[in-house]
Amino acid sequence: MQVKDIMGYLQELAPLSYAEDFDNVGLLVGDKERSVSGILVTLDTLDEVVNEAIDNSCNVIVSFHPIIFKGLISLTGSTYVERAVIKAIKYNIAIIAIHTALDNAFNGVNAIICEKLGLTNRQILIPQPKTIKKLVTYVPKKDAEKLKMALFKAGAGNIGNYDHCSFSTDGLGTYRGNDDSNPTVGNKGELQTEAETAISVTFGKHQETAVLNALKQNHPYEEIAYEVTTLDNNNQHIGMGMVGELPKSITPTNFLKSVKQTMGVPCIKHSSFGDTKTITKVAVLGGSGSFAIQAAKRSGADIFITSDLKYHDYFQAENEIILADIGHYESEQFTKTFLVDYLSKKITNFAIILSKTNTNPVKYL
After folding, report:
1. SS3 of the chain: helix, strand, coil, percent, to 5
2. Rounded to an integer, what distance in angstroms lies between the CA atom of residue 309 and that of residue 325?
3. Among 34, 223, 225, 283, which has the minimal tally of Cβ within 10 Å of its Cβ?
């Protein structure tokens, strides 16, 4: 097995094309063609974590956070980032980061929090725009069904909870090939009128290469007429944060006590309870979530669980919602266990190790 195979499994879980523009995900250090001896999974790739990988004979580190966030202009070992990168290169250790790709995945970071808190009827809090594309192509009527099946196999035609979705229109197509053409149907230099079917299918933007390859491999024409457009439809399975419901309403105090225990949080900072008497609907966003406060309010959530809220962020609650900061590390701590479980199912009989290094930089007295 090679490093690129690990990346492929992670892409199935959380396509990197859905990571935020500011992020740095994918293979950050190493050769994708290198054979894998072992995998260490961590939240952060610190110098101590690289040592842990070395001690466990792991030459791949799957990290939630990227160790390289901005461009490095030197490698002198003067910062914790440089020291970790230098050591990884020295010992031929590849580093893969997944970060906001997993944040935006329906079964990713926020689903893990929802699962821990027992939330049901989960929905994406902030759907990521421009993630759905549409292909329209024209094919001889007799080849339409075969082409549709090939496009479906490549991942096209999936909409929410449905698959094999398409729309077809029959009509007449015309074309005339020049002297250099080699038409599959008709003769060069002659105007050809052909009974054709216009096929329209949607697909996720991460599937574009596979869908277009299927089109080109299964379309009979020498020259294929097609168009790809980006739709404005919301994608209910891609986006930041989640909102769900508790099976039974609970008071704010008892709910926060439950969150503290379940998430192993030393303390929770929160806004005023205001007029909120019970908690039923809960919004969550792992990591820094102040940007999603208004979305949480619009969702009708009674409380928003996130981290890294600043002093003035709490004023945005305006007694319409409770804002609760449980800590950045604490909101994402179960991610590495989740990744170990996922990779262990994909890669059996292989060393996939959960890092024992606590990388939380925040300490509590």
Report:
1. 35, 30, 40
2. 6
3. 223
* Average pLDDT of the chain to the nearest whole number: 95
Starting at the edge strand that comes first in sequence, how are the strands of the sheet with 226-230 ordered?
Answer: 167-175, 192-204, 132-140, 226-230
Could you give the percent of the chain with pLDDT greater than 70? 100
Q: How confident is the model at residue 186 (pLDDT cuts 50, 70, 90)?
A: confident
In a shared domain, residues 136 and 226:
yes
pLDDT for 161 equals 83
Q: Describe the strand order of the beta sheet including 303-307 as a list of residue ranges.
A: 120-127, 239-250, 279-288, 303-307, 322-325, 269-270
Helices and strands in the chain, H and E counts = 11, 15
* 361, part of any domain: no
Report d(CA 64, CA 154) in Å as an integer. 28
The DSSP H or E segment spanning 5 is helix 3-13
Residue 171: beta bridge partners? 196
Q: Are residues 83 and 145 in the same domain?
A: no
CATH of the domain at 37: 3.40.1390.30
The dihedral built from the CA positions of residue 162, 241, 283 and 67, taken in this order, carries a sign that is positive
Count of domains observed in the chain: 3
**Encoded tokens for 81:** 């980032």
For residue 69, the one-letter residue type is F
Could you tell me if 149 and 218 lie in one domain? yes
Give residue 185's pLDDT band: very low, low, confident or very high (50, 70, 90).
Answer: confident
Instruction: Please check whether residue 359 is in contact with residue 43, taking contact to mean a CB–CB distance below 8 angstroms.
Output: yes
The pLDDT value given to residue 65? 97
Alpha-carbon Rg for the chain in angstroms: 25
Regarding whether 180 and 246 lie in a shared domain, the answer is no
Give the residue numbers spanning the domain of 312.
109-128+238-326
Of 166, 196, 230, which one is at a domain's C-terminal end? 230
Q: What end-to-end distance do the CA atoms of the chain give, in Å?
A: 45
What's the pTM? Answer: 0.90
Render pLDDT for 65-85 as a digit per residue (tens, 0 to 9).
Answer: 999 998 888 899 999 999 999
Instruction: Centre a 10 Å sphere on the Cβ of residue 28 and count the other Cβ atoms it contains.
Output: 19
How many other C-beta atoms lie within 10 A of the C-beta of residue 61? 27
Q: 284 and 339 share a domain? A: no
Q: Which two tokens stand for residue 242?
A: 């989640």
Asked if 259 and 113 sit in the same domain, the reply is: yes
Q: In this predicted structure, which of 173-182, 206-215, 328-337 has the lowest mean pLDDT?
A: 173-182
